[in-house]
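A brief tutorial aside. Many learners find it easier to grasp structure tokens once they have seen a single protein encoded end to end. The record that follows does exactly this for Extracellular solute-binding protein. Read the sequence first, then the structure, and try to relate runs of similar tokens to stretches of the chain.
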Amino acid sequence: MKTGIYDQLMRAGATRRQLLKGAASVAAVAAASTGPLGMLTRQASADAALRAQILQIPGVGKGSPTDADWQKVGELCLGATKANVAEGEFAGVELTFMGLNNQNLHNFLFRGFLKPWEAYTGAKINWIDLAQADYNARLQQSIATGTVDFDIIEMGAPFEGDTASKGLLDEMPDWVATQIEADDLVGYLKPPVGTWDGKSYRITIDGDCHTFAYRKDYFGDGSITGMAEVPKFWDDVNAASIAVKGKTDPLTGLPAYGFLDPLKGWGGFGFYFLEDRASAYAKHPDDKAWLFDPDTMKPRVNNPAFVQAIQDVMDLIAAGAYPPDQINADPGTTAFQQFLAGTGAALTWWGDVGSNARTSDTSVVGDVVGFSINPGAKKVYNSKTSAWEEKENFAPNMAYIGWGVYVTSRVSSDEKKRKAAWSAAAHLGGKDLSLWTAAYPSGFQPYRQSHFNYDEWEAAGYDRAFIEDYLGSNADSYNHPNAAIEPRIPGIFQYYSVAEDELAKGFAGQYKSAQETADAIAAAWEKITDQIGRESQIKLYKASLGM
């Protein structure tokens, strides 16, 4: 509900219970043509019309969106801004925004969305664009040297330990939470995510989890894998990869390949893809921890579960099952240059693969792609007993806990600039605009409860079966009782980056075994923990797990 309408309703005597009851019982509300509930009905109808309108820009199957489309969507979604900001109110204000330029998404879209915001408010935004592989180093340098040179930052929740704990972020004003309708977030993205010491800092614009995307034409009776069903477990994924070696892709006529592991680092972000395999083996349903021991911060990355995950990858390397030069393929390559372009049977990735499959000019797999939660394992390692348990285990990887927009403490002492920064951030995190970013190529995936209205997606041009499959894989991951959630602790990407370095050595044959590779990662992690402070890390790690 828009802020202004909500305030009007409350002043008119509507209670929260009335509003909730009214929203849940549309037929009853429709009968009230006057008064608070009648206003609610008319507003809901207007909201639905706006959402339907923006989802037709440009329309599913009508080519990739352009800058003109981003600006049009941004203009149509300015209603909440206009309710809180007077025209020209921020004249003379300049803000610096640091974010990503991956695949010409992220910051490129933000520019378009915010152009009409700039025109209306009078503010000007300057941009710092970073490649994914450069992001962590640039942020850590700014933190270490005390040279934060940006007012707004696109950042993931794992970095909250590096920034909020050091007083680098500005606390979110209450009006912002109301404007963005923060209660609409899916459960796992609500506090404590986005908070530190009880204060809120984050406008969520993404709901990251990894899901399993696969080619339906690689499976079924008579398929080239010889498998009637899509694999549910990692050992079956490996078997399918080996089975198609030397065969022909049924869609492209080119060589067929199975699962696409990225073997090159990506500024720490590539470690998530080994985690996809490892979480199934390592995240025991009776244990919240899986990366470190919560009482000692001793790494679990070299326990039998992680070693099994590393061995799975090494087995496919040894079998020659990957495309040529896969050792130099990072996750951007596996998703956008390989899978969506018709190379490979399956991969794990964020939601971009789902929206891009049907709305990007570069995708050829839109008609044959399917989705599920990440594969599981037929055994799970119990770190408390130091023993394997022979039972099926699934643990979807909540990789990165989603991108958010944060405002830095650089603006805290200038109220006009502070309000401008939060207004820009709130525009990007608005409920209606977020639906568009979830449905079209943006770098973001569904993250609000309202994103799971299948009818809206179908009206936009997605076919029902596809969207139920895609959105269902996200919802099943978010709501999974054994989801693997990473800790929001200082230095998390230092751990991930060094893990990538050691994995690269292991995949290149510089270590003798998966165990030796894992031991090298664990030794490096111990050094990082000691550098940061073991006792403080233990405390923060336990807090992040809700212990």
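Self-check: Residues 72 and 113 are 8 Å apart (CA to CA). If you spotted this yourself, you are ready for the next section.
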